[in-house]
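[scheduler] slot 2 assigned
[scheduler] job type: sequence-to-structure, two independent chains
[scheduler] chain ordering preserved from manifest
[runner] begin chain α
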Amino acid sequence: MTTTPLTVAVLGPGGVGGLIGGLLARDGHRVVCLAGEATAAAIARDGLRVRSAEFGEFTARVEAATELREPVDAVFVTVKETALAAALDRLPAEVLGTGIVVPLLNGLDHMAVLRERYPAARVVAGTIRVEAARTAPGLIEHTSPFAAIELGANAEPDSPVAEFAEQLRHTGLDVALREDETAMLWSKLSFLAPFALLTTRHASGIGTVRTEHRAELLAVLDEITAVTRAVGAPADAQTLLASFDRIPGTMRSSMQRDVEAGRPTELDAIGGAVLRAADAHAVAVPTIARLVHDLTESANR
């Protein structure tokens, strides 16, 4: 894998998938974007156009289709959780075969769904930390000074996932391997849940949250730390707080952007996942429960 160009499918070439697909194509790999007819047609015609302070501004020529029609080396699943069930029809298990499947979705529940649907494939847990958005079909705006991927796999250099990770690093992405899948997924969720819930609830960037609503932020961090430890993953509230204090104050969550655009949100995949884990382990999370309740009520108005 480290010397031969790969064929990689991207299911859902939005902000995250479009950025990864564009970087892979620019680095010489064959990329097939799987999307609806209009989006697929636009990408086939115009390519993936990326605007990034980190990676520059470029257009990458890729293929596009509404459904996978041949086996690939790997596929990134980068749709929103709310669109996952319908999107998987574009990725037939019998066509995919034994390729590597890397979901970069928020939450936890998608892992069981994918492993049941693609038993022959290597479904590798993944997370990404990035702020990127699709502003038009095939047009990707990457606004964070980072794009960091973690993959749940051992670091043996001759393993397929380790080789795949090396290919991804060559594109410029920051890629790390984590042997403890549970710790990796909860490390992401323990940051994402407070970030998404609070920026969406207060309709503001994280800078406003950490100054004007700091007491609430501290309460949420204490609660998410307790849940994370209860499921068997390491967590520290002060380390989380340092992360929140370090990121650019203008950063907003994708959940917040979805609310502003009137789109379905990943509230259940993010906040709901925390509440279900808290209930299963008898951990009290009153602040998180209130935020989820308030956001649910707001969405139903």
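[runner] end chain α
[runner] begin chain β
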Amino acid sequence: MKTLFCIFASLPLAGCSVASAAPDGRTLFAQNCSSCHAAGPGHPGTARLAIDAGPDFAVLEQRTDLTPEHVTMAIRQGFMMMPPFRQTELSDADVKAIAAWLSAPKPKR
């Protein structure tokens, strides 16, 4: 009986030792940004950037000039017709992951 009690008493603690994984910028971008900023037609953010900055700067995932600071500012403050994302929508860790992923060096095409 004593052994059985120890097993059941330790069960709630088992879930506490699991560390949460760091946010994945690519997945977060796909979930929160790609509806407006993916490649191809039907994405208003990409279309607007093509008009304002040119086709080489339209698709965020392909850009090589983005800095984490610029991405963070655009996400938090919004940019032109893009509304800002609040911390209740994307945490600071989420924004940092997206910014790091978008600003990472890209392979040459």
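[runner] end chain β
[qc] chain β: The first helix runs from residue 2 to 14.
[scheduler] slot 2 released
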